[in-house]
Design brief:
alpha+beta, 5 helices, 7 strands, globular
Length: 167
Amino acid sequence: MWIFGYGSLIFRPSFPYEERRDTWLRDWSRRFWQASTDHRGVPEAPGRVVTLVPEPGARCWGVAYRIAAERVEEVLTHLDFREQGGYERHWVQLETREGPLLEALMYMAGPSNAHYVGPATLEEIVAVVRTAHGPSGSNRDYVRLLAEALAQAGEHDEHVAELVRLL
């Protein structure tokens, strides 16, 4: 089984895996449109974390992790708890450098969940990120670590890059 990470799972997978691959998901874009009350913020002052939004023609880079068959249940139990703040499981087809498509499970927070805050200006998002802090650390660190992971992979994400510039 493969797990697709496009946010914190890129820089902090926190589960055992057998293999890691660069992958891309077509027609989706990463956006800081999800509130975080359990990791990068608290209920009284939610932070902002990424989710995916449909965007025809877009190509979102991320990482796919291959999970050993005997560890799948353990990893899914861990991820179901970690991604509980509005994220749901979805099966996707990923592009790889190796050629064939890869089927993977990803966690995505859509507009129907209670923590989805939706579109906002970058300035509004930055105002939240500057001050938010939760059990997993500061919201600024989340943005910084994601931007660093993207840079190390040679991938550019305009939304993330602009947030970093404004921070």
